[in-house]
Write a structure and sequence with these properties.
The chain has helices at about 1-5, 30-50, 65-75, 80-95, 125-140, 165-170, 230-240, 275-285, 295-305, 310-325, 330-335, and strands at about 10-15, 55-60, 65, 100-105, 115-120, 145-150, 180-185, 205-215, 245-250. By secondary structure, it is α/β, with parallel strands linked by helices. Strand 6 (about 145-150), helix 6 and strand 7 form a beta-alpha-beta unit. Helix 4 packs parallel to helix 5 and helix 9 crosses helix 10. The mean pLDDT is about 95.
């Protein structure tokens, strides 16, 4: 938290709502586990509050286990009402959080195990609209933000939410809440290269943030240089001075496939130097729109005792060529 604050970031996103709320239907073992989590979360929130860092809690719609499924079935509860109950408990238990980051379009794979596993519940954009209309008044009443992610993995009628204007229009029809922020990846697919800026970021009346990734899941996850500065600078130029862009969300630690195989977590003991470089340069260019990628790199070199910044820039330029020509077929990636 302190390292991200020093770079210029003002918020952190934390996993996850499922581990922060206690339901009476839970087994003894789950209850004891969540008590342990609660003690850790309390320490984390205390640090964030001390240093004036906003905290947003991630969640899927919706997480389940056997206890939850039994509770919903036995009491004939609609899943949206259950989610409303969960949010009410969350805001009561953690009043200092700034909001929730909601993902509706991806679920845990069959190879994932854990106390809670997520499943896809929403299958069409009208259901998104119904859910937003149900929960946004609660966010407004508690002065919290709902950051709604448009990322999906292409499944059901919401599978094109990230790029289809009609699907987005249906999902957010007549939604005017100031509590809503829509979060979109920089392109119209996953965090890859050769992508034009997602045109949906330049449309709509609602507030938006752009999602960027500095721990490059498709490009080594920080095991070798995979510099994003030149690409992100072009995106920032297009977004500059747009009043509907509320900020950016930088994925620098979690996210992506092969979590067990790639354990380097940015800014902690096993951090990746290359992830830290990307994370540094991204925020510096965003905060100072006069700063070039080269200027941000030189600033990073100064902070890290790298004396020959010209050669370091050359290294990154060459690695950029390797990434874009060695890992991608340009003509396919552009589509």
């Amino acid at each position: 938290i302190l390292k991200s604050k020093a770079l210029g970031y003002n918020s952190v996103s934390i996993d996850d709502v499922a581990h922060m709320i206690m339901l009476p239907c839970y087994s003894t073992s789950t209850t004891e586990l969540l008590k342990d989590y609660s003690r850790l979360y309390t320490q984390l929130f205390s640090i964030a509050k001390k240093y004036n860092i906003s905290v947003f809690i991630n969640t899927d719609y919706l997480f389940f286990n056997d206890d939850i499924r039994r509770y919903i079935t036995t009491n004939h509860i609609d899943v949206s009402d259950f989610f409303l109950e969960v949010l009410t408990l969350l805001f009561k238990a953690t009043p200092d959080i700034s909001g929730v980051i909601l993902r509706i379009g991806e679920n845990d794979g069959i190879d994932v195990s854990g106390t809670f596993l997520s499943s896809l519940v929403i299958k069409n954009p009208k259901k998104i609209n119904e859910l937003l209309n149900k929960v946004l008044p609660l966010f407004e009443a508690n002065n919290k933000k709902l950051i709604f992610r448009t990322w999906t993995v292409g499944v059901y009628e919401v599978g094109d939410l990230i790029w289809n204007k009609r699907t987005l229009s249906t999902a957010f029809k007549n939604i005017t809440s100031n509590a809503l922020i829509v979060s979109m990846k920089y392109g119209d697919t996953d965090f890859m290269r050769y992508l034009k800026l997602n045109p949906r970021l330049l449309e709509g009346r609602y507030s938006k943030i752009i999602e960027l990734q500095t721990r490059r899941e498709w490009e080594g996850m920080g095991t070798y240089p995979s510099f994003v500065g030149w690409d992100y600078a072009e995106y920032f130029k297009l977004l500059r001075d747009r009043p509907d862009i509320a900020g950016l969300h930088v994925w620098c630690q979690t996210g992506g496939w092969a979590k067990q195989q790639w354990s380097n977590v940015t800014m902690l003991d096993n951090s990746s130097f290359w992830n830290e470089l990307n994370t540094f340069v991204t925020i510096k260019m965003y905060i100072d729109n006069t700063m070039s990628p080269e200027g941000a790199i030189r600033s990073f070199c100064e902070n890290h005792g790298i004396k020959d910044s010209d050669q370091f820039i050359r290294l990154l330029a060459l690695s950029d060529i390797v990434i874009k020509n060695g890992l991608y077929f340009k003509e396919i990636a552009e589509k």
